[in-house]
Amino acid sequence: MDATVLSASLIPPAPKIHPLPLGGSLLGDLRIAWEMGRNLVGAWCEDDFDSLVTPYRFMGQPGLVVSDPAGVRQVLASPNFRRAAKLGRPLKPLVGDSLLLTEGETWKRQRKSLAPVFTPAAIGGLVPHFIAAGDTLVGRLAGQTRANLSEAFHHTALDAVLRALFSRRADQDGAVLAQIARRYVEGPAHFRLLDFVSRGVDDLTFADGDRRRLGGRWLAAVDAIIDERRIAPRSGDMLDRLLAARDEDGRPLPDQEVRDQCSSMLAAGFDTTSRLLFWATYLLALDPTTQDRVRAEVTAFPAERVTGLDDLKAWPLLRAVLFETLRLYPAAPTFGRQALADGEVLGHPIPAGATVTISPWLMHRHRKLWDAPTTFRPERFLDQPHPWGLEAFIPFGAGPRVCIGAGFALAEAQIILASLLARVAVTLTHERPVTPKASITLGPDHEPDFGLEPIVQARP
To answer: Where is this region: Disordered (predicted)?
Structure first.
């Protein structure tokens, strides 16, 4: 069968759609809060995938769900909207006052000071770390006929970020960090009723003891690595660039800010990339024909030959697979913006304090925005010179606050996945579908074992 036809016929699993919209009453609000606490993408109803703008009331407050690309970009670019502070409550204990959660002048100053760390040239210099992490993954899986790749990708993505950030390997520092991150994602990261009724990120924290305890352990572990590196020789990694960064007045970044930015890069960087790797591998296991085509690309130009970002152009289908994965399984499935003053979006009034909800999960599967929106069709991205030209595609956000680490994550994911697929064919070991379950990031509802079939490399 033609690979394009096969890809177009593949419908990845998704959470159960609610038959009726929720909300508008106390009972409806409590059902939404309960459903979102279980699964952040579980509260959408069938009508949401047809409507581009939906006014609502939740916990007595007005809001607007916006999926129209013009409205989304208006909100994300407007100074009248800021990140909804309460939505940062699950993240604050892990990332502190980092770029991820700050606002206003503090955010502008931090963004400017971090920009040199994430230039294409700087990311290109990290390629050897990504290759080393991919080789380590392949080495760990050698000889295995089946493996929990979700767990393996968590370890590998953490390994890649630790190498790039601190010139350290996951087997040195990753065990404690991986354990804390897994416990946090599986528990405290999920939204709670008090998160929805709170007015800010530091409101009602009396109920967040588990978040603060685990977050404190995480920050302490990051502090220990930084303290050790301060007395070690320079390694040309991301920490060196952070320590060399200067504010507009020429002063180095405060110690706490360095710690918080490193914590944010670790927490956001390794978890989101490991999820991307998992979902891409799952989709390719469901679609072995496309997997074989990707393998042909990475075999013709192996990962070990990559010396910079330009070399990644040798893998156009692999890149398209990752973009299609991000469309179907965006790492950050829902976020919000809060109006600072009265205004309107696409003719809908937005009073001060109201929240505009934007869901990449909803937009990326919207029936009015995509052809065959629920099918796995990576070819749709092959014809796009740059996927950000697709206005309905926002896996890394949009506007001034677009994810600063997008280039880092994509380069890392391409190299690691290429390293794996060049050496093994990945298959499913059972028929139980894996459905997405979202807290901070979009992960699987269970972690299946994958079959691993070694690829016999042809001799030259």
So the answer is: 437-460
